[in-house]
């Protein structure tokens, strides 16, 4: 069985009724777009998102929680377009993980990728997550369900995102280390102090974890926490260079065996409700359904 057909503790949708769900990745991506509203796109879509939902919904670590909240807010089927006030108020990671779960459930190998999008702010690479699924010929394709909305005016097809428009974190790291890109243009646009090589490092580690079946929240951290470029040591640089050099599924699994990179049983998480200031300890599940099994 393809490892990326297996649900993880994070993507597992539970007793999901597959009747009526499309199998086509494009149709599933549109379905997900109609179930979630990004917590920060209320102004763009003309529908203010309640503050409690902006803060609480994105703390939902598992697809089961996302589906539970959707059921609480409306009794329609997943295939029905939700009015905005019945949607889950999430982040790009939630669009990506829910789509990944539905792809796996309907027979398409998939995973989520952490990196940087060059299509939100001109000249800047914004922290972002998308879904990646495997085509029948073995190639991987990126799809961004979040931007499948007319409010996003894009020059490309979100169902086949070009690799130079979304840079997987390892590609962003290599571009900056090789002098082809400015690390100061990678980060979180609306947070002026969240950019630089240290921030790219954080996303490289999150992406490596995700492709190995540990699909964390964007604000989870573990190991040695670095908060500026000055804090990066030669060992840090060499370690992330090794991760960024990974190309194949076997490479990703081999690199992840390094105890300095593997996610431990507990991580620290910057809670959204405290404005990304307060760290709390979170225990993570370990299930044999993980792609690392």
Index terms:
about 290 residues; alpha+beta; five-stranded mixed β-sheet; disordered C terminus
> For the CA atoms, what is the radius of gyration?
18 Å
Shape: globular
Mean pLDDT: 93
Binned, the helix content reads: 25-40%
Distance between the termini: 12 Å
The H/E string reads HEHHHEHEEEEHEHEHHEE
Notes on the structure:
This protein has 293 residues and is of the alpha+beta class. The chain has one domain (3-283). Helix content is 30%, strand content 15%. It is built from nine helices and ten strands. It has helices spanning 25-33, 42-45, 51-56, 63-73, 92-105, 169-177, 197-211, 234-244, 249-256; strands at 36-38, 88-90, 110-117, 125-134, 140-143, 166-168, 186-187, 220-221, 266-270, 279-283. The strands form three sheets. Strands 3, 4, 5, 6 and 7 form a five-stranded mixed beta sheet that branches. Strands 8-9-10 form a three-stranded antiparallel beta sheet, with no helix packed on it. A two-stranded parallel sheet has the order 1-2. β9 and β10 form a beta hairpin. α1 (25-33) crosses α5 and α6 packs across α8 (234-244). 41% of the residues are buried. Residues 89-145 form the Transglutaminase-like domain. Pfam families: Transglut_core. This is Transglutaminase-like domain-containing protein. InterPro entries: Papain-like_cys_pep_sf, Transglutaminase-like.
């Amino acid at each position: 069985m393809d490892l990326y057909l297996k649900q993880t503790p994070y993507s597992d949708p539970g007793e999901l009724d597959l009747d009526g769900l499309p199998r086509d990745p494009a149709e599933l991506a549109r379905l997900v777009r109609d179930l979630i509203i990004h917590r920060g796109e209320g102004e763009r879509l003309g529908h203010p998102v309640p503050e409690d939902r902006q803060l609480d919904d994105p703390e939902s670590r598992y697809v089961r929680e996302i589906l539970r909240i959707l059921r609480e807010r409306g009794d329609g089927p997943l295939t029905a377009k939700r009015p905005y006030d019945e949607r889950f108020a999430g982040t790009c990671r939630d669009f990506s993980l829910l789509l990944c779960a539905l792809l796996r459930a309907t027979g398409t190998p998939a995973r989520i990728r952490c990196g940087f999008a060059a299509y939100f702010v001109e000249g800047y690479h914004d922290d972002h997550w998308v879904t990646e699924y495997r085509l029948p010929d073995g190639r991987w394709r990126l799809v961004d369900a979040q931007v499948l909305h007319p409010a996003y005016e894009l020059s490309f097809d979100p169902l086949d995102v070009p690799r130079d428009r979304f840079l997987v974190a390892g590609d962003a790291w290599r571009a900056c280390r090789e002098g082809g890109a400015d690390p100061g243009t990678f980060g979180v646009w609306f947070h002026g102090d969240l950019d630089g090589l240290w921030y790219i490092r954080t996303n490289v580690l999150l992406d490596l974890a995700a492709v190995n079946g540990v699909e964390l929240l964007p604000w989870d951290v573990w190991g040695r926490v670095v908060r500026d470029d000055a804090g990066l040591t030669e060992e840090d640089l060499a370690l992330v260079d090794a991760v960024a050099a990974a190309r194949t599924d076997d490479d990703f699994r081999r690199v992840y065996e390094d105890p300095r990179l593997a996610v431990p049983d507990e991580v620290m998480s910057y809670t959204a409700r405290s404005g990304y200031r307060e760290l709390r300890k979170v225990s993570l599940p370990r299930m044999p359904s993980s792609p690392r099994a």
